[in-house]
Amino acid sequence: PSVARIFVRASLKKMMAVSAALGSVFTLSGLALSYYFDLPSGATIILFSAAAFVFSLAAKKASQVLIRVRT
What we know:
By secondary structure, this protein is an all-alpha fold. The chain contains three helices and no strands. Helix 2 (12-37) packs across helix 3. The radius of gyration is 15 Å and the shape is flat. The N and C termini lie far apart (32 Å). The mean pLDDT is 85.
């Protein structure tokens, strides 16, 4: 969660709070998915977190491309 959050610049205090919130969301979402689809919970949480990290990378790259196109 902290790595996904670090791409959005903020103070350390804000980054820690958002990272804790994201960790909770990833954990609860992974547990819900593992319950409904009868999957191992640990692996599901990790995959959900990794997908969010990849999404944050893609969003950052897309925003950089849009900024370059506008200028």
